[in-house]
Amino acid sequence: MRKIVILSLMILGQSIFAQELALVKEKAKIGYIDKSGNYSVQPTYDSAKDFSDGLAAVKVKDSWGFIGKDGQMVIEPSFSRTRDFNDGLCAVERDGAWFYINKKGEKQTMPYSDKIYDFTSGVAVMKVGNKIGAFDKAGKVTIPAEYDVIKPFQNGFARASKNGQWGIIDTNGKVIVPVEYKDVGEYVNGVTWAQKEKSYGVIDGNVFTVVEGADKIWDFGNQTLTYARRNGKVGFVDKAGKWIIEPKFAKARAFNQNLAPVFEGGKWGYINIEGNYVVEPSYNDAESFSNDGLAPVKGKSWGFIDTSGKLVIPMEYDISISFGFTEKNKGFNGGVSRVKKSGKWGFIDTKGNLLGNKWFYNAELFHN
């Protein structure tokens, strides 16, 4: 019986930790709701940040501390400024000095850096003079400070530059794509784009293939096609650098669910991977499909269509005002979408139901 109770408590703890919460502001106070729309943390804070790595920074009087998802204070307020927890560590400021802490609030000794950077993919960038390197969570330097620029790591890879040339490195400093290109994109599933002298092309592994006539290529996403431009028109290329859909559109966005939004004749529609219209151009704006199988489309306001092109949620919302939204997080994320109506923010599910039947003065995306 005792083992069953302990196991149940462990499962409950894991469930709470895995639960995503969204920061919301009701009147003048900030709290956090779960995906049922109910408060997990009551709105009691004047200033607070999103959850990240299981903790959220909250301000009490003049100091910042961190709460867990049960609303209990985990790290007592004692910091003048904070970043977000990632990989179990967070950069904080106290008495004018920045340093790292762990989830117990203990100060961590790390290699010297002129500027403090957040951990991503298990490493943090360090700046020594005019050069950039990186170190891991144990404080071990994994990349000597020999680069001019290292962009934030994503899924274990980062764009890096030396002497005006760009390539891709991993968190151990291994060169994945040689640092010899004028520009390079994000490294996704072993593929990226690059510019070499005046030519644009695709790199699959570390082999560069020129895309005939291309003067711009966008990052690859969830599928093996990405969009590219030639002579002012946009089409789609594969990871071998071959034009799969000839450039004939004024604008385009990424494929997902085997559909991509394209702009032609002053309106947006959706094509399949053969380049044929599944949804004829009829919208003033359109975004890529999410993994939930819905895409935001705009008439006077925003609604959502399914992969057959059927409008399943009416066009009566705003979705992309402020908060630095990108194409990747507009619309549905994990079964809910952040929307605005009549000046208030809330969340709807894939059926169009308002979570908790409640609107807020402000709302952010759900985070772990």
From TrEMBL:
Coiled-coil segments on the chain, per record: none
Keyword Signal attached: yes
InterPro entries registered for this protein in UniProt: WG_beta_rep
Signal peptide extent: 1-18
One Pfam family here: WG_beta_rep
Keyword list, A-Z: Signal
Domain of life: Bacteria
Protein name listed in UniProt: WG repeat-containing protein
